[in-house]
Write a structure and sequence with these properties.
With about 450 residues, the chain is of the alpha/beta class. It has 14 helices and 23 strands. Helix content is about 35%, strand content about 20%. α8 packs across α11.
């Protein structure tokens, strides 16, 4: 049962979970979420039809009806869940993971995420206990439901005039292909613009730099103003500037402020995750954006944005959340809005890299992974070492630790999906950054055997 994680169910299909698990998840969802109808979508992975059939069989055997959305991006399923009043939905996807993976993202009414603590733990327990799954007296029915046009029309409301900019776009052979050309037309130069669940060109994870290299090359060859790359299920998006340089996704939270806080004048709260650059909040503050920091992952971020009624938010992993979109994330919506900002910059004679230079004020290590056994002990040791050396200015103890000092800060947290302890550090100078990273590495390697 190793596929049950903090945010979703995900793992190598037929290793971490199988058809029987998928059937039982489908069977138990109507009871868990107290509903007799469930929306179901799926991504393009080769195993998705089999997982889909098992989930649908489970739901209908439990006596609930299935509204089958067919091939869908994950945000399409969020849209359908909230827009049509479903109390339960399941998107069959492994998001950005390699082709041999699959999984399920579960949502309830208003597209609220069902993470481990909100219900997936209960389903796992029911499965492990061997809770019976008898066929209901009246089997549920399956109805095909096409929401493509409704979601497309929702997205098009945000689209600006891109005629003055040159766009390079990597669709990663994934679910962004369902919409990209209808939204952006034939003007962008596209890469990997056919749906193929084998992901033959690169893994659908744009946070790994080698997967972005074809786009970076294309941007330079085409002299594009911006490069855009989506992950496999199109809930995440990342960007490359006109020089072919990858932009850290947390900095794009600040770029979104140009649209919401300046152009639309929606002053208010903005959400970032605990790993985000300090520069984001400093850039948004004069625009009327008040930063809030919270845990990593949609199950936490979307719920927190709803709780604070934030205007928008984002994560280092390339998820961007919008009050306009049921407090949920959509890679396509984020890219539409950011391209609006790039088009406006071009008219003003400015480039995306110049805007990022205005935002980025610190040296950043990026996430560094350490493989070790005693994650809790290691986190405490790193925290205690630095807090004993100088006075901190801010301290956060959710999702690991984030401790801020006058000239630098760090976050150390356990991965929710992989066997790693993750460390990220930001400082006012490269020398200070290198010093703090080296001290952390030495401590973790000598005392905890970190690899």
């Amino acid at each position: 049962m190793g596929a049950f994680h903090a945010y979703d169910i995900r793992g190598i299909y037929n290793v971490d979970f199988d058809r029987e698990t998928a059937y039982k998840v489908g069977y138990f969802i109507p009871e868990l979420l107290k509903t007799d109808k469930v929306a179901v979508g799926r991504d393009c992975r080769e195993s998705s039809p089999e997982v889909h059939d098992a989930v649908v069989a489970g739901i209908t055997d439990a006596g609930a009806d299935v509204y089958d959305l067919g091939l869908a991006s994950t945000p399409t399923v969020y849209f359908a869940t909230a827009n049509y009043g479903f109390k339960a939905s399941i998107q069959i996807t492994a998001s950005h993971n390699p082709a041999e993976y699959n999984g399920m993202k579960v949502s309830t009414e208003n597209a609220r995420a069902i993470g481990y603590d909100a219900g997936l733990k209960t389903i796992r327990q029911w499965i492990e206990e061997g809770r019976p799954t008898p066929a209901a007296g009246k089997k549920g029915q399956v109805f095909e439901m096409d929401v493509h046009e409704d979601y497309l029309n929702f997205l098009l409301k945000y689209k600006g005039d891109y005629s003055g900019i040159r766009i390079a776009m990597d669709l990663s052979n994934g679910m962004a292909n369902l919409y990209a050309k209808e939204i952006f037309g034939g003007d962008p130069v596209y890469l990997f613009d056919e749906i193929d669940g084998r992901f033959p060109n690169h893994e659908p994870n744009p946070l790994i730099l080698k997967n972005v290299e074809p786009l970076m090359k294309l941007v330079k060859e085409q002299k594009a103003d911006v490069g855009v790359i989506y992950d496999g299920d199109a809930d995440r998006v990342m960007f490359v500037d006109e020089n072919g340089k990858f932009i850290s996704p947390d900095l794009m939270i600040a770029v979104l402020g140009q649209y919401f806080l300046v152009e639309r004048g929606e002053k208010g709260l903005v959400l970032q995750d605990i790993r985000s650059s300090k520069a984001v909040g400093e850039y948004l503050a004069p625009m009327g954006g008040e930063m809030r920091t919270w845990k990593v992952g949609r199950a936490f971020a979307a719920e927190k944005l709803r709780e604070i009624d934030g205007v928008f938010g984002g994560e280092l992993a390339g998820h961007y959340y919008f009050r306009d979109f049921f407090y949920s994330d959509s890679g396509l919506l984020a890219s539409i809005i950011i391209l609006n900002v790039v088009a406006k910059l071009k008219k003003e004679g400015r480039t995306l890299s110049q805007l990022i230079a205005d935002i980025e004020k610190y040296q950043n290590s990026g996430e560094i992974n350490f493989r070790l056994e005693d994650k809790a002990g290691a986190m405490d040791a790193v925290r205690d070492m630095f807090m004993s050396q100088e006075q901190h200015t801010a301290y956060m103890d959710f999702d690991g630790y984030r401790v801020e000092f006058p000239q630098w800060w760090f976050n150390i947290r356990p991965s929710n999906t992989e066997p790693y302890l993750r460390f990220l550090c930001e400082a006012t100078s490269k020398e200070l950054l290198d010093e703090k990273v080296a001290a952390t590495r030495k401590l973790l390697e000598t005392k905890f055997g970190a690899k």
